[in-house]
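Human: I would love a firmer grasp of how sequence relates to backbone shape in proteins. Take your time, and here it is.
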Amino acid sequence: MPKSFPAATEIQLSIVVVSYNVRYFLEQALQAVRRASRGMQVEVFVVDNNSVDGTVAMVEQKFPEVELMAMNENLGFARANNAAIRRSRGKYVLLLNPDTLISEDSLEKCYRFMEEHPEAGGLGVHMIDGTGAFLPESKRGFPSPFVAFCKTFGLSALFPRSRVFNRYHLGYLSEHENHEVDVLSGAFMWLRRSVLDEIGLLDERFFMYGEDIDLSYRIVQAGYKNYYFAETTIIHYKGESTRKGSLNYVRIFYQAMILFARKHFEGRKASWYIAFIHLAIYFRAFLSLAANAFRRLWLPLADAVLLAGGMHFLKNFWARYHFHNPDYYPPVFYQVNLPVYLLFWLGGAFLAGAYDRPYRVASLVKGLLVGTLFLMAAYGFFPQEYRFSRALILLGTGWALFSTLGLRMALRFFQEGNIRLFAPERRNYLIVGSREESKRVRQLLYLAKAEGNYIGTVLPADEEARKKLLEKAPSDDLEENYIGSLERLDEVVRIFKVDELVFCSKDLPAERITWWMSRLGPNLTYRIAPEESPSIISSSSKNLPGDLYTVQVHFAIADPRMKRFKRLLDWGLSLLVLLLAPLSLLRLRSPLPWWRKAGMVLLGGHSWVGYAGGLLERQDLPPLRKGILTVADTFPEKTSMDATTLHRLNFFYAKDYEPLKDLQIFLAYVFKQ
């Protein structure tokens, strides 16, 4: 159906995107906006909150039609949006996150819906994450005390379709139908200008989170309606589900809820709500800590239980078979020997990367065998009363290999339906795009050192058109592996056991990308290669933030092995500080005693060396613990360094990291005192 918008000299839509160090996501988002804006009178604002990742230069170079507002500080979400809204002229205003990908028809369909529904003050759309899974924050109810209680304590998750217990995400309303809702998501918030003029802009007291709830509430209070519009789909890489495990998110989100309660509730209702929110902060923080600990420790603990149980039976067997004495091993075996054996075996597996995701069987086997070698070497130094039998250690090694491999075999069977432990670790990937884009994407993946088995390319055309394209292909292009057609993509994925799909956005409309992601489901990894971009964007899990492959940056500190070595060095330096502190050998000028600093590091809240400038985590650098020292502490002029200089120090520290760097910074600081 052709577009037929009424002729208008006024701007139909003002799009506002607030960006902070998400250059590659923003580039893809603006390309999608450019395509979706054709045929409409649209103005686009990008408000950059003092990014240091080249965002401003990228927008100026690649999107000259965009009105760029480069701030010299991080204004937060509300203030930054308001700054652009005040300069905008559109009949409607769209607040759009930079980590989104809108479909080619999104703007047209939303515009028509709002024109046909004059009672609508705001509009949200059907959103999916980077795995193709529906994002429940696409439609939400107001967070009344009871609604917040159900969400905080898991009743909404236990009864997702309940009208009573899941009013927060309105789980009883179909995601595939249009509905009147309470709250719009700030990731895609379509607003009527006249309503904003009446009720005011975003409340700037909300720095991050909660401002969309507050504005949605004021729209309804003014007598207008908010709608969830299911007829167009967008991708939102970093939805709420990607942040809910963060303690920082828990703190900021619930503080925003307290501000909302104080603003809109009165009397006892506000008091009860605020008291409940304080309780919820601690409860959700506890859940986040417990969930994070479980994700990290459940597999090592399961291995430890299997090893300990096996060693119990092996000890009894060897006592009877070899020593002919069922009481040969004294109780001290369980108190000393068994814990030491487990420490060597599991420690070797840990250092070899057996518990890094994705789990690698080769790392497990190598770690157990190396642990055995060190255990056998250390055995000779055990006191005589603890040297029972080397044969039991060898038997235990055999059981360790058998039991841990068996556990992983069972896990693979339940997760993937097969028991191929030693299947190739390189994942099979398929490209959907033209010949030219396919070659460009493969070159990007090669330069980015992204491991994978290239299965082939699916051309974005039906079977008949595909054959005609191949008939016209150059002779040196005939050996390329072009398989299947787009209309049969699901069959190609199944037959060739594809793990990852890379969509070329130059050749495939965003609407088709989102359709295929929803159809194929969350068991695949989806990546999108924006047009003329050196990056490939993806989100491999709905519980993980979006990530990207780029040919420009490879951070050594993001490698799990380097993270592990950094943490081991932290522990080693902390123990050294604690040993020397009583001897008064570390007389360092500091408002906080160094023994307390060592304790902070050992407890896991800090690292000895962190980013400079008070930086804990930012989206263009791998996250680190807060540092007792920083990468700038060895420079005399650190107090006069500007934000750009500090970022460059942080950048090169993360990019070229090795544990020796931390040791050098630590020693330089110590001897400088």
